[in-house]
Amino acid sequence: MKEWFLIIDQVPLKGSLNMAVDEFLLNSLGDEPQTYLRFYQWERPTVSLGYSQPVSRVVNIEHCHSHGIDLVRRMTGGKLVVHHQEVTYSICSSDIEIFTSTLHGSYRLVSQALMRGLEKMGLKPRLAENSPFFYVRSTMPCFSYPAPNEIEIEGKKIVGSAQKRVGRKFLQHGSIPLQHDEKLLCEVSLFTEKNDGPRMSSLSEALGRKIDFRWTVGLLVAGISEFFGVSFIAKSFNQREMDLILRIQAEKYEDENWTLASGKAPIK
Question: What is the pTM of this model?
Answer without folding.
Answer: 0.90
